[in-house]
Design brief:
- This protein is α/β, with parallel strands linked by helices.
- It has a single domain, classed as Ribonuclease Z/Hydroxyacylglutathione hydrolase-like (Metallo-beta-lactamase, Chain A, 4-Layer Sandwich).
- The protein is built from five helices and six strands, in the order E-E-E-E-H-E-H-H-E-H-H.
- A six-stranded mixed β-sheet has the order 1-2-3-4-5-6, covered by helices on one side.
- Strand 2 and strand 3 form a beta hairpin.
- It is globular.
- The relative contact order is 0.14.
Length: about 120
Amino acid sequence: MQKISSRIYQISLGSVNAFVIEDKGLTLVDTGYINNSEKIFKSISKAGKNPNDIKQVILTHCHPDHAGSAAAITKKLNVPVYAHVEEALLIEKGISGRYPMYRTPGFVNRRYINYL
């Protein structure tokens, strides 16, 4: 866990990051992909903090790389998760991602679609 400011920490999860805010307990912002919960807990412990001090989870949005481990973490710790109201039902079911998803227009995306 890397200290960003006096009360904000970054947890590198490979291609994405989660963040911890320290204020009357811990707030976890985003949870990475599915199966990242133990990596998050270990990073918090290694930094001398207690993962059981997580009081809430905030999701910036419900894509698999941000919300993948939300269900596992909130179930294990019995803490609330805060997200956009339209995504709440998906999160409660352990689903990370909304459908349909559309690619934005542009050259790069047209080239990428050709490889799928």
